[in-house]
Write a structure and sequence with these properties.
Oligomer: single chain
CATH class of the largest domain: Alpha Beta
Shape: globular
Largest sheet: 5 strands, mixed
Helix content: 40-55%
Order of helices and strands: EEEEHEHEEHHHHHH
CATH superfamily of the largest domain: Glutaredoxin
Number of strands: 7
Strand order of the largest sheet: 1-5-4-6-7
Radius of gyration: 18 Å
Distance between the termini: 32 Å
Length: about 250
């Protein structure tokens, strides 16, 4: 299914994109149907980690154009048009002029440094710098792999009691327990203020549960945190624009 072009977001926009990304990876099939002012295009695969990028742009009021792509109805994977954007063929991806950039953390850091004046990051001169770094990277370095492992084990038909399944479940349980303890001590992952670490960490606590189910009823601090995030106007706008059919998984 071809991408859906969404009209200018946050006052932003797009000029026609060149046919080369960084002069290295040719990308084809991207249809730019509107002329706006911003160079950044967020290529959003439905119900995916690219929601982080839309949310960041909304939080920082960074002008951008949104291209939405539906998952293949049979495989639930990215369509061919999305896979053609980058050699890895996975979300998220942005284009910024001739640049094609993948990986959530890299995109978040790139946008904050280049267009956000460092907002939502924590500098090395701050006391909570290490906390910020840890949780920013814990999201995709530990928590997402543990949840993906559980999904793969389930697809392979591993049953409860299988030692591999037990190991994966234990890893997931420890991750959620660590998060619950952290949010019992602080309002946000880096401390008292909302940062990009929260943008990274929300996905495995919320939308990822559409793929890897997790009962949050015994985790009151996580549930209270999700409620706080759900009250943020930028988050609500991001979900409405990126996944209008999705009810945010915030409980």
């Amino acid at each position: 299914m071809p991408p859906v072009a969404v009209n200018p977001l946050v006052g932003g926009s797009e000029r026609g994109l060149p046919s080369q990304s960084c002069g290295i990876y040719p990308h084809h099939g991207l249809k730019v149907t509107e002329e706006f002012d911003a160079m950044i295009t967020v290529h959003h695969l439905g119900v995916s980690q690219s929601e982080r990028v839309v949310w960041l742009c909304e939080e920082l009021a960074i002008p951008y154009t949104l291209q939405r792509y539906d998952r293949d109805p049979a495989t639930r994977l990215a369509p061919a048009e999305y896979k053609a954007l980058h050699p890895m063929g996975i979300a998220p991806v942005i284009t910024d002029g001739s640049l094609v950039l993948a990986e959530s953390g890299a995109i978040i850091e790139y946008l904050i440094e280049k267009y956000g004046n460092g907002r939502l990051a924590v500098g090395a001169d701050r006391a909570n710098f290490a906390d910020y770094l840890f949780w920013f990277h814990f999201a995709n370095g530990t928590m997402m792999p543990s949840e993906m492992g559980s999904i793969i084990a389930s697809v392979l038909g591993l049953k409860e009691g299988n030692p591999v399944m037990a190991m994966l479940q234990d890893r997931s349980d420890r991750a959620f327990a660590l998060v619950e303890r952290r949010l019992g001590d602080v309002a946000y992952f880096a401390g008292s203020e909302f940062t990009a670490a929260d943008i990274m960490m929300l996905f495995p606590l919320s939308t990822m549960r559409a793929f890897a189910q997790r009962d949050l009823s015994p985790l009151p601090h996580i549930r209270a945190y999700l409620k706080r995030i759900g009250e943020r106007p930028a988050y609500r706008r991001a979900i409405k624009k990126g996944d209008p059919q999705l009810s945010p998984m915030l409980d």
